[in-house]
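Can't attach files on this board, so I'm pasting raw text. These are the components:
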Amino acid sequence: MSAASEVMEDIGPDEASSSRRLADLVFKLREFGIIAVLLIFVGVTAAIQPRFVDSQNIKFIFTNATIYALLALGETMVVVARNIDLSVGSVLGLSAYLSSDLFTRTHGIPIVGVFAAGLGIGLACGVINGAIVAVGRVPSLVVTLATLYVIRGFDIIVVGGGMVVANSLPNSFLAITSSSFGPVPYLAIVVAAVIGLGAYYLRSFRSGRELYAMGSNPEAARLAGIPTGKRVFTAFVVSGGIAGIAGVLWASNYGTIDSTAGTGYELQVVAAVVVGGVAIFGGSGTVVGAAFGALLLATINQALYVLGISSFWDEAIAGLLLIAAISLDHGIAVSLTSALRKRSLEHAT
Amino acid sequence: MQPDAFTVSRGPEPPTGSPQAENGSLPTEQVRSVIELVRLLVRWETALVIALAATIAFGVGVSSQFLTGSNIFNIGLANGEVAIMTLPMTLIIIAGEIDLSIASTLGLSSSLLGYLWLHGWPMPAIIVFVLFIGVVLGAVNGLLVTRLGLPSLAVTIGTMTLYAGMAEIVLGSTIVSNFPARYTNIGVNPFPHTVLSYSAVAFLVLAVIFGAVMHATPFGRSLFAIGWNKEAAQYAGIRVKRVKTILYMVSGLIGALAGVLYTFRLSTAEFDNGSGLVLSVIAVVLMGGVSIFGGKGTLFGVFLAVIVFCSLQNALLLTNFPEDATGIVTGGLLLGSVLLPNGGDLIRRVRAHKGRGRFPSAP
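---
Top answer:
Structure tokens for the assembled complex are below.
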């Protein structure tokens, strides 16, 4: 898909705007595509098993999807700039344990303090990732693969054999993820608003657009004067901070936190982002799409459960969906590129 | 083993008129020749040998058991499968791609082995069939990457999930452990006349084969060409798609072989066997000095990294370091191995960044 934007650089301002409209339309269709798949999936499942759309189930799906969607927001910022953050699962785990453990260590600590601690832990991890990637100029795949291990190992040493149990957490803390407005958890509404802000930032702020530019063509972005190092660093810090907050929410949602919290989340989040239409090599995709990707994966999980299909099918279906999404995106990118090229040729002659 | 077969390190130089020449901010001829000199003196393999010596010294220091035959057996037993899987991964990364699904192939072959054994197949037939399925799984990866032109990072995240899911479907929550003792003995007894585990012997044999293929055959040399510059390799007459498909098929085969060894060693077939091993495999390959951008690396470096990794992990366990936390060392080594050579390498890396993506070949 980065190819599409490269083509756009070749052509004049008039055609550029019409071409951009075409590209915008296609990407919008791509997002509607996920929503359509989601609706079809919900419809079919509900037709077979009406229990699927009762409020209990919907709430469950939303709660599950919320944490992934939040992580997907940070991951999208990193991925559109042609980087990847594989450490989010480990950061979530470390933050979940250390922040919720504050309730047992410090009696009467305000919940805001716990969130601040989680955010701080996440930001610190993000700073480490970002600094090594931006200053050390090491590929982020390698850096975050390493910090995935290091942070998880650190977590395991800190936790030892211990765990935080729901009894030691105040009810008001557990209520953050469990209280809801009808079938919609309050948390989902808050996260949706945050994702909206993220979408607005990436769409309308200069630094947000620069992330896409870097993802389309890193070298051109650098030559155009974009402070690529700074932008990458910031993206990693944001992704880390979000993973830190997600850790606190994870603790509130599950109540029992040991050193395995969030294991394997990194790949689930990357899967959600890719299913949501974000190109793995950057340059295109939106946080809204990524959030719907997360929602789709969570819905499928729950649908299988409700339909009485063994949860053993979950992973295989997620994998197939992922491959289908990548193939579809590739097909779209190829045909869009050729359509744009044809247009600019017509215009030139 | 012939070190010479392993130490031919450089891939073909990038085509002339490389981006470096066009950029004024790069160092003068002099600085560059000094850097070349430093690079020759401080080869990555030299650093790995020093790291290995330090690890052995550390191991001997923490326990008198470290260099005993039974401990060396344990070192090979605990990490033999990871060691084997680093070999095809090295080839794939050098060719500028990646295979994240290899450990899921291990898991699926383990599941299949258990399932077919429960259903009364004779063991030799099961093993042949499982290895064949491994090749098929690899071919699926290869075809998706080469024929559809999809990025391997994304494809193999997908097939990693897919194959792990298929393993769950095949075996469910069943745990198969009634394998005949003549097979499960590989988890107890060393290879005859040695102190090494069967998996370690398999690794040594395969390492020699892979090293020879990689550094001394046209096929092996073509991997470096593809990793450096896919288009140039294509125009030079290398059948890039076919080569990559073969690599993925080999990767699937080795993943399945690792699955068979893993199952017999633990005497258990479970659907989640081997989950999470893929990150260790990649970490070891990169520690061995293979460039994530492709085109550069030696099998000898990976071989040394495997030994450093296995013995360090074992030495840590002898100090009662929590087993699950040994990842902190894996990660630390990986970070060190990319940051350490920063001085002289930085310039080369900047050069590599230019005109080439941060990841292997985006479509």
